[in-house]
Amino acid sequence: MKTRTITGLVALLVLLPIVWYGSWPLVLGTAAMGVIGVSEMFAMKKKNFWSLTGILTSLATVMIIVPTTYLSFLPQGIDITTVFFLFAMTLLVMTVLSKNDFTFDDAGVFLLAAIYIGTGFHYFLQTALFSFRMVLFVLLLIWATDIGAYLVGKQFGKTKLAPVISPNKTIEGSLGGMVLSVICGMLFIQWYNPLNLSIPMVILLAVLTSIVGQLGDLTESAYKRYFGVKDSGKILPGHGGILDRFDSMLFVMPLFQLVLAIFNIN
């Protein structure tokens, strides 16, 4: 717990100033986290990250993450959709050229990895470029869910939420996390509410963030169990890897932007 706490504090002291400053350091830092996430996926799959496949997957992920202004070097008429299609076709062709040493299963995993990691960090970046405090709002909802689920689950948890995937999580804990997320969201908008979010909208965002964040956590638990690993990586002592630390956020950030778009909030 001590190592976990120290690592968390150090990570915040590094991450928050970069998010606050924004601009190219934020874009570069976010892209770097995306590439590290890809390397963790390769490690779990027991594939060589320092290979053509690893380089292509990293490039595809970064191109999803960065704003379109950073892709102005692409020829006219070529967009990220076209580039990603070429990436997918290249992976499929490599299953033939490698004589199935690189399989369709590998191609599918790395395609999903680029979409999953790239999209999550893209919307983290979009939210951060909009407002430092808006990132804090979303992260607060995620952290409140984690803390509430842990405290309530430890004290009152009896009914297993997903025993095969994550035996320690309980339905009671999940509900506790949801309630604390709503409370923290309501308190936060008293301090910062640039989008003029109504109370019902904050409650909706908090509940959806809590649910989707927990699904992101469970999803990561599921593929780690599938790959037979405890942590996705070791870059963050006490926390594991980038995917361990940002599993909820990778699901929540796209949802957050989607809800704002659906309700035309900007």
From TrEMBL:
Molecular function per GO: phosphatidate cytidylyltransferase activity
Membrane topology: Multi-pass membrane protein
GO cellular component, one term: plasma membrane
A Pfam family recorded for this sequence: CTP_transf_1
Transmembrane segments: 6-28, 49-71, 77-97, 109-125, 131-152, 173-192, 198-216
Family indicated by similarity: Belongs to the CDS family.
Protein name in UniProt: Phosphatidate cytidylyltransferase
Biological source species: Candidatus Jeotgalibaca merdavium
Source taxonomy: Bacteria, Bacillati, Bacillota, Bacilli, Lactobacillales
